[in-house]
Design brief:
This protein has eleven helices and 21 strands. A hairpin with a 2-residue loop joins strand 5 and strand 6. Helix 4 packs antiparallel against helix 6, helix 4 packs antiparallel against helix 9 and helix 6 runs antiparallel to helix 8. 37% of the residues are buried. Strands 12, 13, 14, 15, 16, 17, 18 and 21 form an eight-stranded antiparallel sheet that branches. Strands 1-2-3-4-6-5 form a six-stranded antiparallel sheet, covered by helices on one side. Strands 7-8-9 form a three-stranded antiparallel sheet.
């Protein structure tokens, strides 16, 4: 991708900084986002309790290719304003894209940015874009955060049109719940704009810039919960109407008509879901109740989250019905291969009876008939003799000769035993690279409860694991057994999971996987698989080793990515 210009105002991409209009550059340098002094979310800084510090001089002069901490290589500047710059960079150690905010160490907001970044990193909630590093080094302060290449800004989504009711419901539900959790930990966003909301390919909404985006711009608020709640209301309003709920245009959206004030969403656009429209008004109109139902205003994300949960659930739209393709008859029929198909209405042909062959009337024919008759008589006689012999053998059942015959047959072909379940006495993670996945959760992989599971970390690259050679668990069977098979129930299906069973020397083996004896392996796109050994292997410790994992969405506070979970593991011997 070509390097962008590093002018005073630049277009944001995946850094959490929205584009600013060219004619607003001067106002931005003065610490506000629009010409009339109103912030980009439509609120007045002084009246809403938001205040900004004076903007410093220019941001650090860096260029593409510059490397931070001998690890983060800057690739593309996506924003340069207010004395800081934001970049798309490459983490060369982990071979993944990251975002980086940069500002001078003597910047008046440098200490605040560092503190905000470290507080955000401690939250660890996967519903937020994670802060990966916050460092002061070589007269620079930089904050490294996740970069989600498969995610789309809400700004771009709304440019295509308003959201369907179910999608708008998911937006306000997920964002309000996430912000309620953040405020319980004492963290506010204060910069919840459409460009701060990302929608992943799996339909999950992620919030970027928690605490950090406001710190970069010097934004504070005396009522942070109310400010974030009103911002969520503005996002919902925009999602329902494709209009920004203030007089000024912002984020590619047209503002409301001047002089009319805040009007209900269903007065802006026909067909707006009534319950969601009222919810947006309750979050926006914090100075009073809505006119339609006199419901109390929502002043905190927690209250808004509870109001969303109290709504009747909105079902997703029915998938569009696509008629199956018309059944096509082939032109092949017996005796007509290669002939052109008949043109016109098809004619149903009734099968013609095949005439019997003529009777044998010659001398040869008569001789043949007598020969056949003789053969039939001989066959009947032989059958009668065999029947009699069978009856005699049955009458001698239990005799010494028959017992010896049966004993000889048993000795020659030993009876095949059915596999029996082997109980698991304990388990431990195996991580030769020194980085455990979820060491405290190994018991969930064999506790008999399929609703719980041991999970791996989420990786950006896959299905084959790139950062580590594999992930796995060693199971203790209590004593040596002939291990014949294993059945594994997994959390995520998809393309694809590859796993294998190995005989380990102990719960903490010193040898590598390559030195262990393989019992069985398998690859599947399903969430269940059976691994069966060609020949049983005697061992007490069994390593279940996973080298490829499918892509999974956000689940149980685990971010989207290439990952897997083990819900039920059983062995047979």
């Amino acid at each position: 991708m070509a390097e962008r210009s590093t002018a005073a105002v630049d277009v944001a991409d995946n850094s959490g900084d929205e584009p600013l209009a060219a004619d607003a550059a001067k106002a931005t340098a003065d610490g506000v986002d629009t010409q009339d002094g109103r912030a980009a979310d439509g609120s007045m800084p002084e009246t809403d309790g938001e205040r900004r510090s004076a903007a410093p001089a220019a941001a650090p002069e860096l260029h593409s290719g510059h490397k931070l901490a001998r690890r983060y290589r800057l690739e593309e500047c996506v924003t340069r304003l207010d004395g800081f710059s934001s970049w798309r960079a490459m983490d060369e150690k982990l071979r993944r894209a990251v975002g980086v905010h940069l500002l001078p160490a003597d910047h008046p907001r440098a200490r605040t940015v560092l503190a905000a970044a470290r507080s955000s990193a401690l939250l660890g909630d996967p519903r937020f874009v994670q802060v990966l590093d916050a460092v002061e080094e070589n007269d620079l302060v930089y904050v490294v955060h996740e970069w989600l290449p498969d995610a789309t800004e809400l700004t771009a989504i709304l440019a295509a049109g308003p959201l369907e009711p179910h999608e708008a419901y998911q937006l306000v539900s997920q964002v309000s719940q996430a912000m309620a959790a953040a405020h319980r930990e004492g963290l506010a966003h204060l910069r919840l704009t459409p460009s701060a909301i990302l929608r992943t390919s799996t339909g999950q909404y992620r919030i970027r810039g928690l605490a950090v985006n406001a710190a970069l711009r010097g934004i504070t608020s005396e009522t942070p919960q109310q400010a974030d709640t009103e911002a969520i209301g503005a996002l919902l309003y925009a999602a329902l109407t494709q209009r920004w709920p203030y007089e000024n245009d912002a984020y590619g959206l047209t503002g409301l008509p001047k002089g009319v004030g805040l009007i209900a969403p269903d007065q802006v656009r026909a067909g707006v879901h009534r319950g969601l429209g009222e919810l947006a008004m309750r979050a926006l109109a914090n100075d009073g109740a809505t006119a339609s139902r006199q419901e109390p205003a929502c002043t905190t994300p927690e209250e808004l989250s509870k109001a969303v949960a109290a709504m009747p659930r909105i079902k997703p739209p029915e998938p569009a019905f696509t008629a199956p393709p018309e059944y096509q008859h082939t032109t092949y029929q017996q005796g007509s291969y290669g002939r052109p198909a008949p043109i016109g209405p098809a004619t149903v042909l009734s099968p013609q009876p095949v005439p019997p062959p003529p009777p044998l009337q010659s001398r040869t024919g008569r001789a043949l008939k007598w020969s056949v008759a003789a053969l039939l008589i001989a066959a009947l006689g032989l059958g009668s003799w065999q029947l009699a012999d069978t009856l005699l053998n049955h009458s001698k059942q239990g005799s010494g000769d028959n017992t010896r015959t049966q004993q000889q047959k048993t000795d020659d072909t030993p009876e095949k035993k059915d596999p029996v379940p082997l109980s698991i006495k304990g388990a431990a993670e195996y991580y030769p690279d020194g980085s455990p996945q979820n060491a405290d959760g190994v018991g969930k992989s064999y506790d008999g409860d399929t609703s719980t599971y041991w999970k791996t970390k989420s990786y950006d690259d896959g299905p084959k694991l790139q950062i580590t050679s594999g992930v796995g668990i060693i199971y203790d069977l209590g004593a040596e057994h002939d291990v014949r098979a294993a059945s594994v129930l997994m959390k995520f299906a998809g393309d694809h999971t590859t796993m294998a069973l190995y005989a380990a020397e102990s719960m903490h083996p010193k040898n590598s996987v390559g030195d262990m004896k393989k019992i069985a392996d398998a690859t599947t796109k399903d969430n269940a698989v059976d691994l069966t050994a060609e020949t049983p292997v005697k061992t007490r410790y069994v390593l279940l080793w996973i080298t490829s994992v499918p892509y999974g969405g956000y689940a149980d506070y685990s971010k989207a990515g290439y990952k897997q979970g083990l819900a039920d593991v059983k062995f047979k011997g």
